[in-house]
Amino acid sequence: MEMPRAMLNDTMRVALLGFWLLLVSAVLPVNAAFGGTVVAWGRKAEGGTAVPVGLSGVTAIAAGNGHTVALKSDGTVVAWGNNTYGQTNVPAGLSGVTAIAAGGLHTVALKSDGTVVAWGYSSDGETNVPFGLSGVKAIAGGDYHTVALKNDGTVVTWGYNLFGQTTGTPTPTFPYMATANPVTLNGQTLGAVTDIAAGAFHTVALKSDGTVVAWGNNGSGQTTVPASLTGVTAIAAGADYTVALKNDGTVVAWGLNGYGQATVPAGLSGVMTIAAGYLHTVALKSDGTVVAWGYNGEGQTNVPAGLSGVTAIAAGQFYTVALVGTAPPVDPTIITQPVSQTVKAGQNASFTVTATGTEPLSYQWRFNGVTIPSATSTTLTLNSVGAGNSGGYSVIVSNPYGSKTSATATLAVLANPTGGVPPTPPTYSPPPAKQTGKDSLILITHGWQPLGGYEAWTDNTGWVDDMANAISQNLVSRGFNNWQVSPYKWLVGATATFPWLAQVSGYNEGEKVGQTIVNQGFTHVHLIGHSAGAALVQGALQTIKSKASTTVVHTTFLDPYVGPGNDWRSVYGLGADWADSYFSIDLTGSTTEGALGGAFNVDVTWLDQNKTVQAVYCSSPSSTPATLTPCSYQAISSHPWPHDFYTATVTGSLGGTEGLGFPLSKEGGGWDNRSTYPRGLAPRVLGSMPILTQGIFPVRSDPLLGLNTLLSANSGNGTVQLTDKSFSFLTLPALAPQSLTKSARLAQIGTAAWLSIGVPVTNQVNFVSFDAQFTSEAGATGLLTVYWNTNQIGVVDESVTLAGLHSYTFALPAVFEAGHYALGFALDPFTNVVSSVTVTNVGTGYAGLTNPIALSATNSASNVTPVLTLTADAGFNYLIQASTNLFDWTPFAVLLNTNGAVQFTDPAITNLSRRFYRAVVP
User: What is the pTM of this model?
Assistant: First the structure.
């Protein structure tokens, strides 16, 4: 079975935006019993060190370019020092504040509801908090830009962007301001961030895996993170340098070092937090003492003698601030994350986490998100593991003030992937018997039959009989008595959890059907398949042409399922004497719509009498389009419509078909005209409006696995070779007792062979690919089954597979993140004849959108109807659905995204108390 090398995850990519809905993160109420006093030293000119007399109950401090900010235990803010631009003018009534930050000449506050307030200098937009920004958990201020960390681990920035400090890509012309979208670096949205810092013109982020990312001005190497730096727990950014605190209490610094600000004092250890000023660095040790180094022209590194009991520090431009007193309660922080690993079955495995925070800390381990009873210590030990232990492990660390969930570490257990239970051999539906006097065949088949149903796909097979009856009546009325019309139903293989599983089964089924058709000796064959039935049609086509090349084969594809990676578009129809495809624009998206490379393509959406018409909004060349009106309109049909359309062309009950469909077949009378309908070009659109072309999902193929360098386990029998890029194994004949008769011995089944390989994954993956060739003895009926952990992801049936080396790609049941996984192969015999197979070029990869879909809103010029903005991968169309209850969704608009962003409006929102939107692309 030759298959394309690209698949996508099973779920649709969805972004959700709600008006009226407010997601509020839990924040510990500030307790007046905690808090201390402020001590400051260094430059006095601007007043940043002039602590107000009597100030107490302070829980947090921040320092900027001559101004200092304090957060009190009652959630209010006090500020003093340089006020040239109003940076110390705390907004009247400001309360409920949980965190503060000081930029160069502006101040930022984070409230308990996850919203942000900013004031002070704003010529570069640094205090212009993005409309609708919420769900923020941390803030930072640079000289002229502001940074916010959201609960989902993404970073939002705004303000001065000449060096790319807010977006990663510099804004070269005035006013140098960036848009308030999640930060995207190297084409991907920055995520999994746990802390942020802002220097003069650069930004730093700490990721959940203990690594650091930095962007913006790099004139002094401040964003060149040391290659080996890991285990970081906190970060700080000076003017042109960066500082990191490691989980062992040591400090690392890089960037500008003209005054020794990046030269960490020898032997410094036991540090629990750090701060960076303009040219000096400060460290707070676990014993409550302070160490400072770097520029000391204003005395900023002269720590007051005897200073102790310090609970927090801040570094201004040329001065230092310390908070002395009772430390407030601290929610947990995970210092060391559990580590992914691969072990062989029967061995022990353990995961460990290290965390800090106000005691007591409690721990609860989970397996694939489910609580593990009695697993409540810092270390989780699993004794004598088996295949069922493969999966993801995480721990929730909590105390009375909050909780944190660790990163998920994966365990790959190398064991018999079948669990000792051999798979059931595939079951194929009986092919239609050849009728007397028939030399030509029309075979009609259905597609995926979903388990549980899904509105975009749900269908039944009754239409197969309806089409077969319509074609039979048409042929009889015209005296075409040499044609056999056969509906073909393959419900066992077509009924599956996901459509690509049905596609794989359909291809195998098609090879079986093709062999039967060859044996029956038909001279002209017309194969018609809907949805995943297109794979059955292609499998039958390739078998027929490989074994009876003179047989004329016509293939017709009806809304063909092209696989989640879209690569079957280039496969369907290849090898046929002629092929045509009829599709509609519907909720199944790009997996069933668009041109096939080997077929004449027709879009039939606009002929559907039950279609809905949606407004199309297009990307604008500028960030602020002159108008927000639709650029076009697009009809939305249904997945079953193409087979209803084709049936209507048989009966002649539909207008506007332009003679396409059944009339183009040999039995329909138009076979000799096929040369006027070229294959593989832009689709012919039936109706008044043009098609919106959907892009093909990008595919990333990882380097091939070096099999002999990876930890593996095997059955011990039949494994004959394991090299760098290939392996081969064979089944063993059963050893029958001598007392059995010859016929009884022949009826026995041989012994299976298996191989399990530990695969370390560094990026997202959602498919496995390889090449395979059976090299068995005559009469072998082996079944090669492929597993990802304990999930069966595909089979290759020797009984129907064509001879030679073939490529296979199997989709994984989900998108898997970085970690360790077990890739298993099992070869099961169903007779006592030895079956053998060689597998080579094994690899993983990812097919799909590389960035998350984001929806945001801003006020329109009239401040009546918000302007909605979608930010997502360019080259794809996105369907916007609206709801008032988060349950019932109605298609609202289609977005033609050509440059990464599309703006649109919804006038209906002014008449509703609440309105939710989601953007969907399959």
Answer: 0.68
